[in-house]
Amino acid sequence: MDHITGEPPWNKELTMTIASITSHRKIYSITLLLAACFLLSAAAESPYGVCAHLNRMPPEEMRRELAGIAAAGIGFVRVDLDWAQVEPEPGKWDFSRWDAVVEEAAGRKVKVLPILGSGLPSYGKPPFRNLQRYLTYVEKCVRRYKGKINCYEVFNEVNHIRPWGETPNPANYVALLRETRRTIKRIDPEAKVLFSGVSCLGNSLKFVEEAFQAGAGDHFDVMNFHPYQWYNAPEAQLPLLIRELRMLMKKHHIDKPIWITEIGDSSSPVRYRLAGEVVSPALRKLGFRPERDTVGTVADPDTLFFTGDIDDFLPEWKRRRALTFEELRTVSPTDCPILVLPGRELFPAARIDAVTAYVRKGGTLVLPGGFPLYYDFRQTAEPDQFRTVQIGNRLLPQLHLEWEAFWVKKGVPRTTTATEAGEEFPGLKLTHHPGMRFLNAENLKGADRMIPIAWGINGRYRMPIAALYQLNSDLKGNIIVAVDSRTDSVTEKEQARRLPRQLLLAFAEGVEKVFYYRYRAGEWNRGREAHFGILRRNFEIKPAGLACQTLIRNLPPGSTRPEILRRGLIREAHWRRPDGVPVTALWTVFGEQPAPQPGRQFLRAETLTGEPLPTAKVPDRLSADILYFTGCGTE
User: Fold this and answer.
1) CB 578 within 8 A of CB 561
2) Mean of the per-residue pLDDT values for the chain?
3) Residue-level pLDDT at 484
4) Which of 301, 345, 412, 430 lies at 20 to 30 Å from 574 by C-alpha?
5) Residue 282 belongs to what H/E stretch?
6) Is the dihedral angle over the CA atoms 64, 69, 75, 81 positive or is it negative?
7) pLDDT digit string (tens) for 430-453?
8) DSSP assignment of 148-181, as one string?
9) What is the SS3 assignment for 50-114?
10) How far apart are CA 307 and CA 232, in angstroms?
């Protein structure tokens, strides 16, 4: 039976009863079995990791972070082995910061995964053209930490321009990977070499396949990628991404473990800021009122597509109704006059007719962020698995919408220098929204109108970044669009919901280790990148930190590999801890659903963030907040 591995502190309560056993031989056998389970847990290597820039922070912060990582039961930490830090000038070496990190981590029994090639010095860019200098850096690092570090990741996200300063080239990376591995193995044959954690933004599998075709499979021990799930429920796509990577490896005869060295969500407070400033005023201009009018949202089980929380931009509009696409086809705009789609740029293109029919009948559609309908959320042959396919503006003519940007239209600026309210929205208070996405009127028909709500301005260029489309042609409704790009963060509560589900899904697909990005948020500003993390900058734990601890307590290292069952929108996961005790986890992909077999009694139960349930029974209804049940359930 497959096991996940690791060595964190774990719940040592033994919830088995052997009072009914009277035979000494049976008791002795069970004692040996339990002892074996404890030994399995102690010997196992942790599957849990986090990313932390430990070498870039003051020593007292580094020590405090490592203490927290160890206390949470996290067994690995991924850290940038910045070349420019350890060799600030050619031939001058300074490992003081890294020595302190390695020593402190060892004392805490936390293993370190360094990222080779981080923080490139000016004299080392690009590394494949400065190979001897780069390999000297690798050799110095591996010799220094032999016996203390046993795995190395060779560059971060090499399918992006950042590590190179030029267009990424798989063949160049394979040449670098080959020489890096030779250097590492010559010094430390037992050390594991990881393929770069490739980003899943863009066509990452194309880069990976070209690297495999160039012979990469012979030059690493562990495959690695970063399947961030910002734009959809992780259940809808994460298993597919892992399976597709494994199929590609199999195609090239590569049978090696997979790690995920980055995955996670930002809880930036800057979410839907433009929509928060423009959507409610536009609805009020149309005569709608929050105390009277119902706002529809999509919650479609067939496509696993849902709007999600709209409190970021419509907090006062509390009359809400969740609709499937089938219900949307028949709903009357009189009963539900407003429909909000998610601002995640994804949409199942096969369902566009339901949205068009709603607007044709006079409904008001709200598109609160990003390029509207930019990606098709496309069903695959795998049950409940969807692929993101870029389709650009292909669906927009059906809704009489259009956008423009510098890469598709000459003369469009790369950013804006000012933001102003539209003429029909005098007095509208707006913050400045630097952006590169704009709306236009090129697809209007008949007596349609585009009314600017917010202008984006740069010199003589002046186009809407938010607009109200009043349609009076074959479509009779309204569409409110905001194209702010700040829609890829979630609330702290949602971040906590998603963390254990992402990890369970990955482990169920056979991923060997998962590193959450990141441990502590930087919070240098209010943007997305500054708010990844399960702790706040001041070391205060977020709900996601509690969710991480609760998962590790229920799925400790040495547990069996989780098996996840699909029951409509409900997911039911099963595994056994190293002591042999079974654990069940229950949650929904989105929304609330009636629980299967409500009232099932377990020995113990706790919530997403570790609060014990008053009774260890399955409740009547489940939500996206995972629940853990320990022991064998009984009716």
Assistant:
1) no
2) 92
3) 81
4) 301
5) helix 273-285
6) negative
7) 999 888 999 999 999 999 999 999
8) TB-EEEE-B-TTSSTTTTS---HHHHHHHHHHHH
9) EECCHHHCCHHHHHHHHHHHHHCCCCEEEEEECHHHHCCECCECCCHHHHHHHHHHHHCCCEEEE
10) 10
Burial class (CB in 10 A: 0-12, 13-18, 19+), 592: middle
Helix axes 492-508, 543-554, angle to 10 degrees: 30
- What DSSP assignment string belongs to 598-613? TT-B-SEEE-TTSPBP
* Cα–Cα nearest to 270, from 343, 345, 339: 343
**Token digits for 41?**
């847990």
Tens digit of pLDDT for each residue in 66-98? 999 999 999 999 999 999 999 999 999 999 999
243-263: average pLDDT? 98
Selection from 614, 593, 611 nearest residue 301 by Cα: 593
**What is the rounded distance in angstroms from the CA atom of residue 8 to the CA atom of residue 23?**
34
Extract the tokens encoding 579: 């002591």
Rounded Cα–Cα distance for residues 67 and 108 (Å): 7
pLDDT band, very low/low/confident/very high, at 5 (cuts 50, 70, 90): low
Could you tell me the CA-to-CA distances from 250 to 238, 259, 545, 628 in Å, in that order?
Answer: 19, 16, 36, 35
| pLDDT confidence of residue 255 | 98
HSE value, Cβ hemisphere, 13 Å, CA-based, for 426: 0
Compute and round to an integer the Cα radius of gyration of the chain. Answer: 27
> How distant, in Å, are the alpha carbons of 405, 413, 461, 463, 466 from that of 410?
8, 9, 12, 14, 21
Q: How far apart are CA 482 and CA 448, in angstroms?
A: 18
Q: In what order do the strands lie in the sheet with 386-390?
A: 346-347, 375-379, 386-390
pLDDT tens digits, one per residue of 404-424: 999 999 999 999 999 999 999
**Residue type for position 33:** L
Q: Measure Cα distances from 610 to 17, 547, 548 in Å.
A: 24, 7, 10
Gap between the Cα atoms of 393 and 403, Å rounded? 8
- From CA 460, how far away is CA 469, in angstroms rounded? 23
Q: Examine the pLDDT at 567 and tell me if it is beyond 50.
A: yes
Helix axes 170-187, 131-145, angle to 10 degrees: 40
